Amino acid sequence: MKARYLTFFSYIGTKFRSSEKIWLKDGLNYPDPQSIQGLMEIALVKFKPLNYPNIFLSSRTDGGVHALNSSAHFDLEKKGKGIYDPPYIVNHMNKFFSKNQISIFIKKCIRVNDNFHARFTATSRTYLYRLAVLKPEVEVDENKFCMLSFIPIEEWKRCDFVRLKDFDIEKFKEGAQYFVGYHDFTTFKKFDKLKQNKHNRREIKSIDIRPGRPCVTRVTGEENNYFDYWDITIKGRSFVHNQIRRMIGTLKCVGTGKLQPHDIKLMLQVPSKHSCLRPE
């Protein structure tokens, strides 16, 4: 008997190529241990279902991007009249990931209707970008130290640590508001010849910027006070390839005075890969 399941999961994306498998001419029924999607399918194959358990992700992320709460659906067909019990699926998938030291945690699994689709049913997606700016009073002698000496080890690959001269968070916030609304984000996508004719209009529902804090132990917290942390939460229906990273890169230039906040308006009004005013 076949049943469809919805699962919620989280992962640390540092070691993965991306969340999505590479499309091959022969289809998607193949193992891909370099992606989140592929590894979840490998875990489900261990159940020996009658079908190949294709994972359908609700959202896709690039290499190095983490997920606090993502979702996906899949079908499993079991011999006989019974179906796989959701708690059994959660338990055995997590055992597989733990045994193989894979940084994916299955949080929950439920049975859903056979016409449910994780990607098309999702109403919004939220992206948290963590930014840590070196405080202006912290002096770094480049001949003796590099900024890595000040970064807490617990935050390795968890936050964007930068040294921005004359950084103004208020200008950063002002520039961010130009992104809110329905725009063509061609200027802020990674150019791909195969997808150059694909439309890039997306809606940013909200951008919230507020002070953050380091995710560190008490010992490190007592001795580390070199950065100002900012949590940038961006909510939208969907995003184009590399959109968030390029938006943040542009806002960094606004915060340091290399661009003016209203320059972002121009980049949106004239959508083109040639309209990017961000200095390289």
Automatic annotation (TrEMBL):
It comes from the Eukaryota. Residues 176-273 form the Pseudouridine synthase I TruA alpha/beta domain. One of its GO terms (molecular function) is tRNA pseudouridine(38-40) synthase activity. This is tRNA pseudouridine synthase. It catalyses: uridine(38/39/40) in tRNA = pseudouridine(38/39/40) in tRNA. Keywords: Isomerase, tRNA processing. Pfam families: PseudoU_synth_1. It is an enzyme of class 5 (isomerase). Its EC number is 5.4.99.12. Transmembrane segments: none annotated. InterPro entries: PsdUridine_synth_cat_dom_sf, PsdUridine_synth_TruA, PsdUridine_synth_TruA_a/b_dom, PsdUridine_synth_TruA_C, TruA/RsuA/RluB/E/F_N. The active site is at residue 62. Belongs to the tRNA pseudouridine synthase TruA family. Gene3D superfamilies: Pseudouridine synthase I, catalytic domain, C-terminal subdomain (3.30.70.660), Pseudouridine synthase I, catalytic domain, N-terminal subdomain (3.30.70.580). Substrate binds at residue 127. GO terms for biological process: tRNA pseudouridine synthesis.
